[in-house]
Amino acid sequence: xxxxxxxxxxxxxxxxxxxxxxxxxxxxxxxxxxxxxxxxxxxxxxxxxxxxxxxxxxxxxxxxxxxxxxxxxxxxxxxxxxxxxxxxxxxxxxxxxxxxxxxxxxxxxxxxxxxxxxxxxxxxxxxxxxxxxxxxxxxxxxxxxxxxxxxxxxxxxxxxxxxxxxxxxxxxxxxxxxxxxxxxxxxxxxxxxxxxxxxxxxxxxxxxxxxxxxxxxxxxxxxxxxxxxxxxxxxxxxxxxxxxxxxxxxxxxxxxxxxxxxxxxxxxxxxxxxxxxxxxxxxxxxxxxxxxxxxxxxxxxxxxxxxxxxxxxxxxxxxxxxxxxxxxxxxxxxxxxxxxxxxxxxxxxxxxxxxxxxxxxxxxxxxxxxxxxxxxxxxxxxxxxxxxxxxxxxxxxxxxxxxxxxxxxxxxxxxxxxxxxxxxxxxxxxxxxxxxxxxxxxxxxxxxxxxxxxxxxxxxxxxxxxxxxxxxxxxxxxxxxxxxxxxxxxxxxxxxxxxxxxx
Length: 503
Ligand code: AMP
Known about the structure:
Elements: H1 8-19, E1 23-27, E2 32-34, H2 35-51, E3 59-63, H3 68-79, E4 83-86, H4 93-103, E5 107-110, E6 125-128, H5 136-143, E7 158-164, E8 172-177, H6 178-191, E9 200-202, H7 209-222, E10 226-228, H8 234-240, E11 246-249, H9 251-258, E12 273-276, H10 283-293, E13 298-303, E14 307-311, E15 325-326, E16 331-335, E17 348-353, E18 360-361, H11 365-371, E19 378-386, E20 392-397, E21 402-404, E22 407-409, H12 411-418, E23 424-434, E24 438-447, H13 454-464, E25 473-476, H14 490-497
Parallel strand pairs: 1-10, 3-4, 3-5, 5-6, 9-10, 9-11, 11-12, 12-13, 24-25
Antiparallel strand pairs: 1-2, 7-8, 8-18, 13-14, 14-15, 16-17, 17-19, 19-20, 21-22, 23-24
Bound molecules: adenosine monophosphate.
Adenosine monophosphate (AMP) binds at residues 164, 209, 277-280, 299, 301-304, 323, 380-382, 394, 397, 401, 403, 408.
């Protein structure tokens, strides 16, 4: 196997071989999946995918509920050199149709709800997999012999395409190589001091880099177990924390845990580390969590295009409201619009360079050129500052992204849908603070006559948009505030509606 060091799967399999009889997953129903079982299952999925003619570089698009089988499918895809394309389970049929066609999928593994798309994509092999790990691909995998051949992978070969929501309404596929995944996993294991006796509580979804790469790879590459929960439920998570040492979550996990009366020092006494990311953790949540549990949450900063960029230190000061220092091997600077570094303390664009940075947007060369500078710096779209010793703080988002419950929502996409609905002249979608979701999507509408009610809009929006993108409140105004260039001044709208969900 030594000739194949470029394959990230090769490294994972090597780690699994050392951990063989150890538990990889503790499932919700009390069952245990050992490393040997998990990688044998991965080999069976690799065998099925090869039989379905998946060759190196072919896209395997997956929209399924989290399960142990889903994990084996991911690993099997890496093993046979396929490119794993995870999709949010909340995406509607029409949204999925866009991804299937854009990714030019070879195989689509999905739940029953989107099977109807099959007739529109006759060249794609449709397979099913449900939350219990049953379905047509599981049946084939159970009958297959486990395949031990690992596809030979070179430095630039892709492992995954992760779709981000597009500011122009069109989603972009961030192309991540085996080398991106491998280097970032090494940096995180080092930065977070992963221990041989760590147990990760994994309650994140696995269609996003946070749950799929960041959390998963730390455990798999060190042969340590995960408590594998299908989704985050505060009460259940609190109960299972007694068997864990590390929790990775979005800020909503922490606000919900704080709402549990039983959260106290005794309930988390076995824990080594609480990590938060994907959206800003408020200093209030940080402080409340510390006073209830004694733990200072470690906040880090990443994104689909680069996995993790910076982290607060494991040893040393974790400063609330900051995202810490660049990971080992990663460069971060704050730059002006032309890419020139700004003096320490000044607000500018956060740019990132290093082995974690993706190779570009799938079939969008122009967009790639716009966002990755010739010298390799990726323009993140986040605005921030950096101290002289390198500590980064995020102050805002240049790209207007709303992050609700850890999910990214790009206003433009919702505005485009709203603007097509009867009775609406124009719309502006903003994010406002929300005690549970971090931010909530709010639509500000100009009516073309008559009253517009959220209930009436919901009927149309539910068909067109994933639930997490639907506005949680709508307001009607006579006209939208605009600057002299005609751009809607969303900052004014945010100020006006900032108290919608918080006082
Ligand atoms: P995604 O591509 O879905 O991972 O979203 C990436 C975006 O999430 C980043 O560009 C940031 O705007 C935001 N983000 C991630 N981590 C943090 C954090 N710790 N604090 C503030 N924003 C964050």
